[in-house]
Amino acid sequence: MTHIRTARLSGVGVGPGDPELLTLKAVRLIHGADVVFAPVRRPGDRSLSLEIVAEHVDGRRQRVVTVPFPESQDGESWESAAAHVAEELGTDRHGVFLTEGDPLLFGSFGHVAAIVRTLRPDLEIEIVPGVSSVTAAAAAAGVALADYQDRLAVVPATAPHDQIERALVDFECVVLLKVGRVLGELLALLERLGLVERTVYVRRCGWPDQQVVTDVRALIPSPPRDYFALLIVRRR
Amino acid sequence: MTHIRTARLSGVGVGPGDPELLTLKAVRLIHGADVVFAPVRRPGDRSLSLEIVAEHVDGRRQRVVTVPFPESQDGESWESAAAHVAEELGTDRHGVFLTEGDPLLFGSFGHVAAIVRTLRPDLEIEIVPGVSSVTAAAAAAGVALADYQDRLAVVPATAPHDQIERALVDFECVVLLKVGRVLGELLALLERLGLVERTVYVRRCGWPDQQVVTDVRALIPSPPRDYFALLIVRRR
Question: What is the pTM (predicted TM-score) of this model?
Answer without folding.
Answer: 0.95
